[in-house]
């Protein structure tokens, strides 16, 4: 993916198996979001191909991606502030449940599964960060995705909230959903993913099982080591 003469992502390749959980990691500006946006249909790549379940999705619209079963969350949750939590989730549910009563029932089940039942009747504007993150996940889940793309969906949570969110992602995966996760929180990557791709300056510099990848010198130098130095007082 090039922006003018600047190549934000170059030569990155990922073959994703059904049922996998893949992590995309790397320093700020490495190209993770750009790669992710191409997978989600929010950017049309300037080169390469994206194929999902046998269909070429390279130039397909975000709507076509949702219909095909690819759902994404946004780093900054984009909720309908004056609608209730249940209504927000119904927006996603309408994709596969055109009748209002069916969409309502489906959304109710998703709201319960995602731990938002007690707030279902409240307006989205009343939610704090953890609730917003959950609602973002719930609304995508309501579209019935086969593949969910999570863009820092677990950032900004307290340790206890993070554990609950990890449990929710596990629960979603257990229902048969394949996941691609962009995340800076290494605990999320190490506990949830089966395979990671490490981006640096637009290139994939390492890929493989998380516990092996984090030991690679190139990954430590480009990403993990840098983070450790930054965290030192
Ligand atoms: N629309 C755009 N136009 C021009 N350059 C862009 C555009 N979007 C991203 N870039 C550039 O592409 C590079 C990769 O950005 P990207 O957002 O994909 O990185 P990232 O790894 O997701 O970083 P972060 O962890 O901060 O989200 C950066 O240098 C960024 O400035």
TrEMBL record:
GO molecular function terms listed in the Swiss-Prot or TrEMBL record: ATP binding; ATP hydrolysis activity; L-isoleucine transmembrane transporter activity; L-phenylalanine transmembrane transporter activity; L-valine transmembrane transporter activity
UniProt record, GO biological process: D-alanine transmembrane transport; L-alanine transport; L-isoleucine import across plasma membrane; L-valine import across plasma membrane
Record InterPro entries: AAA+_ATPase, ABC_AA/LPS_Transport, ABC_transporter-like_ATP-bd, BCA_ABC_TP_C, P-loop_NTPase
PANTHER family listed in its UniProt record: AMINO ACID ABC TRANSPORTER ATP-BINDING PROTEIN (PTHR45772:SF7), CONSERVED COMPONENT OF ABC TRANSPORTER FOR NATURAL AMINO ACIDS-RELATED (PTHR45772)
Name of the protein: ABC transporter ATP-binding protein
Gene3D superfamilies noted in UniProt: P-loop containing nucleotide triphosphate hydrolases
Domain ABC transporter: 1-226
CDD domains documented for this protein: ABC_Mj1267_LivG_branched
Entries under SUPFAM superfamilies matching the protein: P-loop containing nucleoside triphosphate hydrolases
Domain of life, source organism: Bacteria
Cellular component, GO, one term: plasma membrane
Organism: Vineibacter terrae
Leader sequence segment: none
Keywords: ATP-binding, Nucleotide-binding, Transport
Any Pfam family: ABC_tran
């Amino acid at each position: 993916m090039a922006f003018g003469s600047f190549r934000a992502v170059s030569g990155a390749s990922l073959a994703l198996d059904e049922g996998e959980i893949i992590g995309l990691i790397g320093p700020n500006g490495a190209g993770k979001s750009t790669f992710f946006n191409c997978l989600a249909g929010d950017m049309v790549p300037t080169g390469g191909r994206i194929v999902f379940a046998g269909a070429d999705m390279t130039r397909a619209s975000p709507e076509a991606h949702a219909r095909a079963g690819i759902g994404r969350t946004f780093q900054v949750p984009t909720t309908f502030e004056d609608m209730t939590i249940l209504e927000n989730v119904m927006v996603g549910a309408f994709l596969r449940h055109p009748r209002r009563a069916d969409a309502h029932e489906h959304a109710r089940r998703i709201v319960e599964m995602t731990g938002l039942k007690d707030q279902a009747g409240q307006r989205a504007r009343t939610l704090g960060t953890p609730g917003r993150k959950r609602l973002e996940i719930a609304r995508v889940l309501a579209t019935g995705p086969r593949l969910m793309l999570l863009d820092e969906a677990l950032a900004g949570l307290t340790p206890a909230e993070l554990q609950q969110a990890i449990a929710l992602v596990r629960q979603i995966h257990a229902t048969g959903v394949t996941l691609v996760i962009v995340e800076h929180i290494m605990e999320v990557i190490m506990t949830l993913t089966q395979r990671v791709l490490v981006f640096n300056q637009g290139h994939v510099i390492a890929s493989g099982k998380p516990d092996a990848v984090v030991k690679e010198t190139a990954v430590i130098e480009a990403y993990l080591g840098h983070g450790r130095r930054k965290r030192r007082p």
